[in-house]
Amino acid sequence: SQQGEEDPQALSIQEGENATMNCSYKTSINNLQWYRQNSGRGLVHLILIRSNEREKHSGRLRVTLDTSKKSSSLLITASRAADTASYFCATDVESGYSTLTFGKGTMLLVSP
Amino acid sequence: NAGVTQTPKFQVLKTGQSMTLQCAQDMNHEYMSWYRQDPGMGLRLIHYSVGAGITDQGEVPNGYNVSRSTTEDFPLRLLSAAPSQTSVYFCASSRSSDSAQYFGPGTRLTVL
User: Fold this and answer.
1) Number of helices followed by number of strands (H, E) in chain B
2) pLDDT at site A2
3) Is the pLDDT of residue B21 over 50?
4) What are phi and psi of A45, to 5 degrees?
5) Alpha-carbon Rg of chain B, whole angstroms?
6) Given this model, what pLDDT does residue B91 score?
7) Model confidence at B108, in pLDDT bands (50, 70, 90)?
């Protein structure tokens, strides 16, 4: 069963616009991570936010975490065509089962 | 550092054949895992290892075996291939279960 679910499933924007993707999860977590996957490639780690953090930045990326709502958002500012990829959230649940559970991803298309 | 390497990149098997997907990492990571990625399903964990000699099952372990004799290598064995195992397989490694995972480029497997 999926722990994290991304929303929307697909997002299409123009270069320069901001892109926001959301992730909801079901059980308490230790941390939440966001990954990017370009077509036909492996996943690349973007950012990790721990359960006691509310916001984290990395370059043009901003991640928020609301543990009371069991949700996170990934904001990409000033999108570029090179940001076209699928984005996945992954959660490390608090139960001690030491694995990450991935959502199904948001497919982002940034048009020039 | 080569990071996480996987071989082969592509493989076609006939039903009932067996094979081993190779995975190696040169980052001295204790934690390694195997995922499969199917369209619309996200990534699902097959098996993982928290160190040499220690392995455990993930969400979809049936039909697969793993072993971890060294820190560097984590091969995935398909015992008797079935068409349902047609998928893209990713190996990943990390310092620990709650840190960023580094993914290999994937193996695209087709079972006829």
Assistant:
1) 0, 11
2) 53
3) yes
4) -70, 135
5) 13
6) 97
7) very high
Q: Give residue ranges of B with CB < 8 Å to any A CB.
A: 4, 31, 33, 35, 40-45, 48, 50, 58-59, 90, 92, 97-106
Please judge whether A99 and B4 are an interchain contact, meaning their C-beta atoms are less than 8 angstroms apart. Answer: no
Burial of B81 (0-12, 13-18, 19+ CB in 10 A): buried
- Contact indicator for A21, A87 with CB cutoff of 8 Å: yes
Q: What percent of chain B has pLDDT over 90?
A: 89
Q: How far is B81 from chain A (nearest CA, A)?
A: 23
Weakly modelled stretches of chain A, pLDDT under 70: 1-3, 93-98
Who among A42, A48, A99 is closest to B90 (CB)? A42
Tokens of A30: 């230790």
State CA B59 to chain mean position distance. Answer: 13
Residue type, A6: E
| Spatial separation of the C-alpha atoms in residues B108 and A41, rounded to whole Å | 11
Which one of B7, B43, B50, B103 would you mutate to disrupt binding with A, by most A Cβ within 10 Å of its Cβ? B43
Task: Locate A56 and state its tokens.
Answer: 């984290």
State whether B98 and A42 contact (CB < 8 Å): no
